[in-house]
Amino acid sequence: MALYALGDLHLSFQADKPMDSFGRVWKHHERKIEKYVNQIVKPEDTLVLTGDHSWGRKLEECREDLAFIENLPGRKILLRGNHDMFWDAKKTERLNREFSPRLFFLQNNFAVYKDYALVGTKGFAFEGPFYVNYRGQIIGWDEERQIQAKKLVDREMTRLRESFRLAYGAGYRKFIMFLHYPPTSVLEKTSPFTEIAREYGVETVVYSHCHGESRFGDSIRGDFQGVHYILVSGDYLNFHPALVKE
Ligand SMILES: [Fe+2]
Ligand SMILES: [Fe+2]
């Protein structure tokens, strides 16, 4: 039994959104997902998909993408990504009712893996616009957008705290935390997300969203303040699910 994670499948079986234009790694990426997930994940395993599942704008436009995910091996847990328009933040329970027991949607709730609580939310990290000098160094940013970003971080922190509260209340003391966005923006060393991970003694933080060679290093990878951070963007892993916990 093992716990795996993979993010940003960006499926488009019903939407006209070929991913090939984003680089070679995205060519027929759905075939790679199917192949590698089937090679690596066993039926008794758990696979957390960390958001940006589908390009469909509403649930009816995502049916085939979600069916594709259902057909992958293992227990599937889904996190909300910034592109997951089908997933209204207020309707997570409805999704869970409709897709149970085939898929579990993680938000304002938690899942269990062995003696770990799997907690998570979409998260948010300020992404500019940044102003850069001729050397490519950041010398400023859009301050209004930064104020807006702070509100989004606060809202996501409320959801994440609820996930921790419920898990803690149910007696769990070991945590693995999932985010769609990276835990810190390129301007930050720490954030409310890294702080809560430290506060609860989270073992591992898993996130994705960062695409392309130049963005993979945007946030923390490896050990930081006693917490292990893993980036699981599909293109970063060439669509091989990452082992989070045996
Ligand atoms: Fe993405
Ligand atoms: Fe994303």
Automatic annotation (TrEMBL):
Gene3D superfamilies in the record: 3.60.21.10
Record domain Calcineurin-like phosphoesterase: where: 3-211
InterPro entries assigned to the protein according to its UniProt record, in alphabetical order: Calcineurin-like_PHP, Metallo-depent_PP-like, Pesterase_CT488
Pfam family, one: Metallophos
Single GO term (MF): hydrolase activity
Protein name: Calcineurin-like phosphoesterase domain-containing protein
Species the sequence originates in: Catenibacillus scindens
Taxonomic lineage: Bacteria, Bacillati, Bacillota, Clostridia, Lachnospirales
